[in-house]
Write a structure and sequence with these properties.
Order of helices and strands: HHHHHEEHHHHH
Strand order of the largest sheet: 1-2
Distance between the termini: 29 Å
Largest sheet: 2 strands, antiparallel
Number of helices: 10
Strand content: under 5%
Helix content: 40-55%
Length: 198
């Protein structure tokens, strides 16, 4: 926090924007981060505070309807209601819940009708979504091929500026052998799955 305080209050730093985020329901006014932000805001009128709230049920319905290219009808409201009850309007959790339903083949693209479908009730939908987003993401990781799981495990301990040859060397252990193009392909697949930002 001390380093952040120095950086945020330094008049020597120009043309630099800091974005600080926290969950207001988990941090009270006595927390060191809140005190830091109050201190920074006192000395600089360019500091702006933006509060983000969960999306409304109507917004979640619109988001899901747009995602699956359907009208906001009764059937859509049943799906969005089940998702909203699990996610409480958090857009990240909503996206994870939809991905989980797709992975479980509950929400699927019907190639015969050329549309997204689900054929379960609202209760069945709710029962097939993890109430915990961490469990949902872990489930997504568990469904990935072992090579990608290994890659993600290694990447969790490595700074973001990593060259492919170093990653290849780390992955080539216990008799495993990878070419650089294979490692690049695993990185691409991880990015496609939303597990890495490349």
């Amino acid at each position: 926090m001390d380093m952040l305080n120095v950086l945020l209050t330094s008049s020597a730093l120009k043309n630099l924007m800091f974005i600080c985020a926290y969950r207001s329901n988990e941090v009270d006014v006595e927390h060191s981060f809140c005190k830091l932000m109050d201190n920074v805001a006192k000395g600089d009128e360019s500091v702006e505070k933006m509060e983000l709230f969960s999306l409304s049920p109507t917004s979640i319905t619109s988001f899901i309807a747009d995602s699956v290219k359907k009208e906001e009808d009764t059937e859509m409201k049943e799906l969005s209601s089940a998702v909203y009850q699990t996610t409480m309007g958090n857009i990240f959790f909503t996206k994870q819940a939809l991905e989980e339903l797709v992975r479980k083949n509950i929400l699927f693209y019907d190639m015969m009708c050329f549309e997204w479908r689900w054929v379960v009730t609202k209760v069945e939908l709710a029962n097939n979504m993890s109430a915990d987003v961490v469990e949902s993401v872990l489930g997504k990781i568990r469904d990935l091929p072992e090579e990608i799981q290994e890659l993600l495990s290694l990447m969790a301990y490595i700074p973001n500026a990593l060259d492919v040859s170093t990653l290849k060397a780390l992955m080539c252990r216990d008799g495993a052998s990878y070419e650089e193009r294979q490692v690049l392909d695993l990185l691409r697949q991880s990015s496609d799955e939303g597990m890495l930002l490349l």
